[in-house]
């Protein structure tokens, strides 16, 4: 039996999100066992920050309001080498905590001990960027900078670039070009037009994108990707 959820569920989205969700819940006569906290985004900026991560939103360019989101994990302290501290004669207790937090310390005999001599460099936080519907724009480039994963729509092939522009969507080539320019590690393409029906391994849009940016995947229902702190993202076997 699953534990009952009682904490509020926070949902972020463009203006109109509240009325949409209210309509759906009312029409389906759905009763939730937990409260909803709905945040309608009105402007660019940080929309959530907690002890683990920061989430930034920026408005993209589409026929209706569409946003992109950058999820930035906070860096973590490097490993503390207790054995080195003990060998240096540092007494256990509050001084260890100061070293772990990056502070240099002074011992009772006057010696200065540098934190970097006992603690590894901080572990970089991972960055995931998820874009809504959009054409190529400055906001998507700003959000995507140095992302470990970029989730980008690829509605059309580049042969349909004019149609993509008219409908305010992107091509696979444009998604790949953004990944290159933003120094992204991995690109995952979504929002594929139903006109492209090939299997994912030889999908024409995947081939188009990989010709520009090799480390590209095509998102599918139930796909799972592992995002390591170092190294490349990999799709898990199903």
UniProtKB/TrEMBL annotation:
It comes from the Bacteria. Coiled coil: none annotated. InterPro entries: RibonucZ/Hydroxyglut_hydro. Signal peptide: none annotated. One of its GO terms (molecular function) is 3'-tRNA processing endoribonuclease activity. Keywords: Endonuclease, Hydrolase, Nuclease, Zinc. Its EC number is 3.1.26.11. PANTHER family: ZINC PHOSPHODIESTERASE ELAC PROTEIN 1 (PTHR46018:SF2). This is Ribonuclease Z. The gene is rnz_1.
């Amino acid at each position: 039996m699953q534990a009952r959820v009682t904490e509020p569920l926070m949902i972020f989205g463009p203006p109109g999100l509240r009325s949409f969700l209210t309509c759906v819940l009312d029409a389906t006569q759905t009763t939730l066992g937990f409260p909803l906290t709905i945040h309608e985004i009105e402007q660019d900026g940080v929309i959530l920050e907690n002890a683990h991560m920061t989430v930034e939103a920026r408005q993209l360019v589409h026929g209706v309001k569409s946003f992109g989101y950058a999820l930035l994990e906070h860096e973590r302290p490097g490993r503390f080498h207790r054995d080195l501290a003990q060998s240096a004669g540092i007494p256990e207790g509050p001084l260890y905590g100061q070293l772990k937090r990056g502070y240099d310390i002074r011992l009772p005999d006057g010696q200065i001990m540098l934190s970097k001599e006992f603690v590894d460099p901080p572990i970089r936080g991972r960055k995931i960027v998820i874009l809504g519907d959009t054409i190529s724009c400055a906001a998507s480039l700003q959000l995507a900078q140095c992302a470990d994963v970029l989730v980008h729509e690829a509605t059309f092939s580049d042969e349909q670039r004019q149609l993509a522009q008219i409908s305010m969507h992107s091509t696979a080539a444009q998604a790949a070009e953004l990944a290159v320019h933003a120094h992204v590690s991995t690109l995952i393409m979504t929002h594929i037009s139903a006109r492209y029906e090939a299997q994912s391994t030889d999908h024409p849009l995947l081939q188009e994108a990989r010709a520009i940016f090799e480390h590209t995947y095509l998102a599918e229902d139930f796909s799972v990707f592992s995002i390591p702190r170092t190294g490349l993202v990999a799709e898990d076997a199903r």
